[in-house]
Amino acid sequence: xxxxxxxxxxxxxxxxxxxxxxxxxxxxxxxxxxxxxxxxxxxxxxxxxxxxxxxxxxxxxxxxxxxxxxxxxxxxxxxxxxxxxxxxxxxxxxxxxxxxxxxxxxxxxxxxxxxxxxxxxxxxxxxxxxxxxxxxxxxxxxxxxxxxxxxxxxxxxxxxxxxxxxxxxxxxxxxxxxxxxxxxxxxxxxxxxxxxxxxxxxxxxxxxxxxxxxxxxxxxxxxxxxxxxxxxxxxxxxxxxxxxxxxxxxxxxxxxxxxxxxxxxxxxxxxxxxxxxxxxxxxxxxxxxxxxxxxxxxxxxxxxxxxxxxxxxxxxxxxxxxxxxxxxxxxxxxxxx
Length: 337
Known about the structure:
Blueprint: E1 10-14, H1 19-30, E2 34-39, H2 47-50, E3 58-61, H3 67-76, E4 81-84, H4 91-96, H5 98-118, E5 125-131, H6 154-173, E6 177-182, E7 184-186, H7 196-205, E8 211-212, E9 219-220, E10 222-224, H8 225-238, E11 248-251, E12 257-258, H9 259-270, E13 277-278, H10 294-300, H11 308-323
Parallel strand pairs: 1-2, 1-4, 2-3, 4-5, 5-6, 6-11, 7-10, 8-13
Antiparallel strand pairs: 9-12
Helix pairs in contact: 1-8, 3-5, 5-6, 7-9, 7-11, 9-11
């Protein structure tokens, strides 16, 4: 597998203002790539903006659901590599707004792939960011890439469809696309406060009682953002081999944790001990989900580089720079309920 000389590459990143998109974009520009970011909304708290990375990229304002915006971003900037991370990523939002989620996640994906299909002289690589949710509920765990895609709830269906559309374009038209499936990704820059890691940290900074939406027993993978960026770059290199077109790869540290486990780990990293408010109100969530990364190890040589403690310490540092420090809670200063 040959390394890519990113100084010779012109790269489109969709979802560049998101957590993974921000760090991926920064890595690419640090390595000398010409990067185009397709951006719908610009949040000033996004790592892409806070770090100044946005000043080092070309910005195309547009929506994934609009084919002309996607095609313009690729065609006018001579893009050869696409990292398609843009999506509606929140399960609760999908429950409330299934039509908008399906449009962003499924139509957005086929717009990217159709652009690659009509511009084969330009686009040589498409890495599509998917999710463990694409598998839906399975009788046996961990998830393996040979399992069927059986999403039922709106968000799961959007990811199952994303993967099937990608495989269809790869197998039917030879579009050079590959799929990455990750579990829960954590790290600095995640501004979706309903998620357990950023939500817990924000509550601790504000001296409020952290909230757990589920009953705390749900099992999940938790993978640090830098490991995910490494995985996407490895997949881009792998697309030099046409046998990779349409393949899907799971990425995981293969150490599933319960929600309470990850909550306690966040509190330990912050040096506090606070009991959460357990709401037990999670809707549209599969109880247990975790992945086998055997295929990625064997065929790509990838493995997670950060253990949980190291990843959470880096994560906490980022949020404290944004929100302020976590201070110990004492009996004289109880958390707010």
